C-alpha cells in the first residue's frame, strides 16, 4: 500500500513526516533534500515508523521536492492537449521535453504571483514522478522494474506565461517565473502493487470551483517507463529529481490550427502576433483573486495525492 510523506515546518524546524489520518509522525533523522530522504530510508522503515504525532493542521506544509533537484517536463503528452495546442497527434511522433527552473518550486498551497509583464497566465495540472535513484547512463525501464527508478508521485501545476512562452519560443523562461511550480502537498511512495494504478489515475483542476481540466493517465501518450528509458540515454538524473508527465486538455491557451499557422506565416510578423493576442484576450486566463485547485487520485482512493490550492495574486 502506498505511503504518504510530507515535508513541513514545525516549531522552527524543517521535518519529514509520515501522514497517518489527520496526524503526522516525524522521521527522526533530518534529511536536507528529497534525494537524501529517498537514499537514506526505505519504504519499510517509514511504514513501521512509530512515535509521537502531531495534528497535520499544526505544521506548515513545504514542497516535498527540494529546490536542488532537477525539474524536467514532458510537453503535449495527452492526445487532446496536443490538438488544443495546434499539434497534429498523428504527425508528432516524438517525446517533447523541456525544463523548469527549480527556483520556481513552492509549497502546494502557495500564492501564484502573476508578474507585471504577464497578461496570459495559464494553469497545467500534471502528475509528477519523483526518482528513486541516480541514473548516469542508458537504462531499460519497464513496468516490471519501474519502481527501481521511481520512488513516488506528486501533484505539479506547471503555471505558464503564454505571452512569453509562445511569441518568444521560451518554454524555460515562460514557465520558470518564481512561484510557477507548486509541488505537493504530499509525496506518495509506491509499492509494487500500486504500479497498475498508475495507468488509471484521475486528474482534475478547478478554477473558482469550475472544472477546467479532467482526464486520466490512461490517455498519456508517452508513459513513465518509455520516457525514462529515452531520457537515460540523453542526460543524468539524481535521486529525488522530478519528472512532470504533461497536462490534459482544458488549458486557457488557444493555439491556431496548423492551417491557420501556415497562413499566419504569410503575413507580417507584427500583424501575426496582434491577431494571436487578440484571440487570447477572449480566453479564460487566470486573474488575480482566482483560486486554482488541483487533485490526483485513483478511483478507489488507494493513491491520493491530496489537493493543491493556489490563489492568484498580482505582482506588487
How much of the sequence is in beta strands?
A: 25-35%
User: Terminal Cα separation, in Å?
Assistant: 45 Å
- The 3D shape can be described as globular
CATH architecture of the largest domain: Alpha-Beta Complex
Strand tally, please? 20
The assembly state of the depicted protein chains is single chain
Please bin the fraction of helical residues: 10-25%
What Rg is obtained from the alpha carbons, in whole angstroms? 20 Å
How many distinct folded domains?
Answer: 2
**Low-confidence region ranges:** none
Structural class per helix/strand content?
alpha+beta
CATH class of the largest domain: Alpha Beta
Output mean pLDDT. Answer: 94
CATH homologous superfamily (4th level) name of the largest domain:
Fumarylacetoacetase-like, C-terminal domain
Number of helical regions: 8
Largest sheet: 11 strands, mixed
CATH overall fold name of the largest domain: Fumarylacetoacetate hydrolase, domain 2
How would you describe this protein?
The protein is an alpha+beta fold. The chain has eight helices and 20 strands. The strands form four sheets. Strands 1, 2, 3, 4, 5, 6, 7, 11, 12, 15 and 18 form an eleven-stranded mixed sheet that branches. The chain has a five-stranded mixed sheet with strand order 9-20-19-16-17, with no helix packed on it. Strands 8-14 form a two-stranded parallel ribbon. β16 and β17 form a beta hairpin. The chain is globular, with a radius of gyration of 20 Å. The model has no long low-confidence stretch (mean pLDDT 94).
Amino acid at each position: 500500500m502506498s505511503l504518504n510523506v510530507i515535508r513541513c515546518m514545525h516549531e522552527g524546524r524543517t521535518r519529514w513526516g509520515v501522514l497517518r489520518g489527520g496526524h503526522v509522525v516525524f522521521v527522526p533523522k533530518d534529511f536536507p533534500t528529497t534525494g537524501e530522504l529517498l537514499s537514506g530510508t526505505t519504504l519499510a522503515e517509514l511504514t513501521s515508523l512509530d512515535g509521537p504525532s502531531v495534528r497535520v493542521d499544526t505544521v506548515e506544509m513545504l514542497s516535498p521536492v527540494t529546490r536542488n533537484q532537477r525539474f524536467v517536463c514532458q510537453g503535449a503528452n495527452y492526445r487532446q492537449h496536443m490538438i488544443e495546442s495546434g499539434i497534429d497527434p498523428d504527425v508528432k511522433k516524438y517525446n517533447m521535453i523541456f525544463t523548469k527552473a527549480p527556483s520556481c518550486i513552492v509549497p502546494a498551497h502557495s500564492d501564484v504571483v502573476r508578474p507585471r509583464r504577464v497578461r496570459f497566465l495559464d494553469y497545467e495540472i500534471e502528475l509528477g514522478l519523483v526518482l528513486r535513484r541516480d541514473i548516469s547512463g542508458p537504462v531499460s525501464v519497464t513496468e516490471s522494474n519501474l519502481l527501481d527508478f521511481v520512488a513516488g508521485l506528486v501533484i505539479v501545476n506547471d503555471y505558464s506565461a503564454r505571452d512569453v512562452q509562445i511569441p518568444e519560443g521560451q518554454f524555460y523562461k515562460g514557465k520558470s517565473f518564481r512561484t510557477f511550480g507548486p509541488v505537493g502537498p504530499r509525496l506518495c511512495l509506491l509499492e509494487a502493487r500500486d504500479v497498475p494504478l498508475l495507468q488509471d489515475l484521475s486528474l482534475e483542476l478547478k478554477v473558482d470551483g469550475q472544472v477546467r481540466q479532467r482526464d486520466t493517465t490512461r490517455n498519456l501518450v508517452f508513459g513513465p517507463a518509455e520516457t525514462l528509458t529515452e531520457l537515460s540515454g540523453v542526460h543524468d538524473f539524481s535521486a529525488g529529481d522530478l519528472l512532470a508527465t504533461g497536462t490534459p486538455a482544458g488549458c486557457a491557451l488557444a493555439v491556431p490550427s496548423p492551417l491557420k499557422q501556415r497562413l499566419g506565416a504569410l503575413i507580417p510578423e507584427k500583424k501575426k502576433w496582434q491577431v494571436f493576442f487578440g484571440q487570447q484576450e477572449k480566453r479564460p486566463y487566470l486573474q488575480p483573486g482566482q483560486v486554482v485547485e488541483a487533485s490526483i487520485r485513483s478511483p478507489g482512493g488507494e493513491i491520493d495525492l491530496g489537493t493543491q490550492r493556489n490563489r492568484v495574486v498580482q505582482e506588487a
